[in-house]
Amino acid sequence: MEQPIAVTRQSFDDWMIPVYAPADFILVRGEGSQVWDQQGKSYIDFAGGIAVNALGHAHPQVLAALVEQAGKLWHLGNGYTNEPVLRLAKQLIDATFADKVFFCNSGAEANEAALKLARKYALDSGNREKNQIVAFNNAFHGRTLFTVSAGGQPKYSQDFAPLPGGITHTPFNDLAAAAQVINDRTCAVIVEPIQGEGGVVPAQPQFLQGLRELCDRHGALLIFDEVQTGVGRTGSLYAYMNYGVVPDVLTTAKALGGGFPIGAMITTDKLAKTLGVGTHGTTYGGNPLAAAVAGVVFSLINTPEVLDGVKQRLEWFIAGLTQINLQYPIFSEIRGAGLLIGCALNPEYAGRAKQITQLANEEGVIALIAGPDVVRFTPSLIIPEQDVKEGLARFARAVARICS
């Protein structure tokens, strides 16, 4: 058997298309909320693969599900169905407002499907002019051309023009502004209950409630992008449950597979009829491996123990971050919900979020940014208290270096 190819961080620069600028070390192993690099250095993982590894690394029950399914059936073309995907669909339906599910591989694909559904539903209603989509400034919905256009961050879309048309952006949390652009030509409004990449900014309840009313008045579909907020991240199974607002369509991915790629769009019977045979599809979506893993992840997270535990863990983080901020006043605000936490930097530290996370790496903790001015934490939903304390102690050392 051939020896594996030797790789270093330089290998990335030599061989990979440079759409990322990864850290200067390579992680090789993870267990729970700790990971280790090639040199054996340990890190506390407060990033969770960007809100993906909701049960940490190498969770024994999830691992067992993957191994068991791998011994049975990996993949089938979409001319066939399989048992794991049907069981997962029923889990999602039983736990949410939805009647029907479409499975894909990522959040971007789920959002793409939702936007296509909205356009076709309006067209099938007989109004060819009803094709306008309303989205929000600083949103993020994915990297396909359609979803990056719907996202309200020109830095991600402006270099790829001409972009798909018929999309209007308006300020987030500004209901009056939204009312000015939502009209009878609007087929859909797409919104994140908490803007993740846009800075971890929660929607105000009256904003989402007002969007629901505007969509009902104008016959538009309300799409909730819960790619980042879904599957327990906020302490509820889905964030819409915190707001008393039920969308027409919801997209979910990230934590759904606990690290195995899977996404889904869920909706009602009435809307699902729009996408008949041949109107949409995906080769890998809902394959048995992904669905088997996601079924176990979903069942483990959708319990009072885990969901209530998210709220308890938020208290640990808030207490620790508040203490850090008392000693080193670097944050103007700590916001978010559950274990989607954003720490906004004070003006004198503006633009230094990435530098803070790089120093955190040096101290042995992995964190994220949400734009240049916000440090973001999206750890495992079951991270032990000791790992929270140790991770925050390491993070405090990184903050001390910035503030010294």
Automatic annotation (TrEMBL):
Superkingdom, according to UniProt? Bacteria
Main subcellular location of this protein, as a coarse class: cytoplasm
On cofactor binding, the record's note says:
Binds 1 pyridoxal phosphate per subunit.
Q: Name one Pfam family in it.
A: Aminotran_3
Sorted alphabetically, which PANTHER family does this protein's record hold?
AMINOTRANSFERASE CLASS III, SUCCINYLORNITHINE TRANSAMINASE
What is the recorded function of this protein according to its Swiss-Prot or TrEMBL entry?
Involved in both the arginine and lysine biosynthetic pathways.
Assembly and oligomerization? Homodimer.
What is the protein's given name? Acetylornithine/succinyldiaminopimelate aminotransferase
What is the species listed in this Swiss-Prot or TrEMBL entry? Serratia silvae
Gene symbol of the encoding locus: argD
